[in-house]
Amino acid sequence: MMSNIINLKKIVLMGITTGLLILNSCSPAQEESNNTKADTAILVKVVFPTSDGTDVLTISGQIESEQSANISTRIMGYISNMHVNVGDHVNKGQLLATISNQDLMAKRAQINAMIAEAEAGLKNAQKDYERFNTLYKEQSATAKELDNTTLQFSAAKSRLEAARQMRNEVNASLNYTRLTAPFAGIVTQKLMDAGSMANPGMPILTIEQSGTYQVTASVPENTISKVNQGSDATVTIAALNRVINGKVTQISQSSQFTGGQYQIKVQIPDREKKGLFSGMYANITIPLKKTDEGRTLNDRIMIPLSAIEHKNQLTGLYTIGNHNKALLRWVRLGKTEGDNVEVLSGLAKNEQFILSADGKLFNGAIVKIK
User: Fold this and answer.
1) What kind and span of H or E run contains 166?
2) What is the reported pTM?
3) Which of 162, 40, 174 minimizes the C-alpha distance to 99?
4) What is the pLDDT of residues 265-291, one digit of tens each?
5) Is 156 helix (H, G, I), strand (E, B) or coil?
6) Vertex 294: Cα angle to 293 and 295 (nearest 5)
7) Quick one: which of 318, 323, 321 has its CA closest to 307?
8) What structural domains does the chain harbor?
């Protein structure tokens, strides 16, 4: 019995000794593993997103004439003469083009003959009416005879009036064979030449009023309510290196035919119109409305483009999750302005994100903040 107890103590002591040896042998390795993880952590720089507190809207637009017109005809025919070219200055009422009108001229000649015949018939019917009216008063003609001549006289007047209205219709059509300028301006497009077939409603020329320019631009639906008619607007024309102060003169109330964008027009003062050409691109800066507290309504979350990760059709950025691990978060982006881009969803204003890293980031990578 005594020997068994002694043997048991020896076994326990041997087990404790073995355990201590194992612990001593493992501790340096574990410590080395921890040191290795700490040494291999990717150094990153984290920042908070910037809140765009500016009270202006920047959009792109195009210079155009305040008044323009597409010149077309209401009749079909060959263009016999084209009297202007692109770039020509024209006056109001100036002849621009003529359409062949031989068929209309022939029709008008026929109608003139009909009018002459109707006039002769009217004179004859009027004489009969006057004669039978006198006879009726002398009781030498019956009431029925007077009624018949009265009806014939009325019918003759109607035929003459119908013929005259037909002539007015032909004359109106003939006016469309001579295309004139509706206002003074410049010919900006010539879509057909002499000999071409002109069709009703198809433009032949385009005229823009000279010296009157405005900028047309599109505003997103989430911003249009913040733009005031009559607001000051700054127009920057990069091609001419010019900055012009204008005013918002029109704001469209519908985006049905503009793809969800609302068109606005910014008028350019007369003194600034020299040297401008229709079609030039321009950037427009417009002050936005403010709330009663004076805080801008255009309070957006902006982050640098360099922080964005692209995976197929998705866009995201890295944040720091639990245990200092990089976490890829998908976000929805909005408008890009310079080196920054707007974050519409996926990141709050008070959330940090990784701006840059000293190594290749991936989802789950161990990171260390600089």
Assistant:
1) helix 143-175
2) 0.51
3) 174
4) 999 988 888 888 888 999 998 877 654
5) helix
6) 95
7) 318
8) 43-54+298-369 (2.40.420.20), 58-63+212-287 (2.40.30.170), 67-100+177-207 (2.40.50.100), 102-175 (1.10.287)
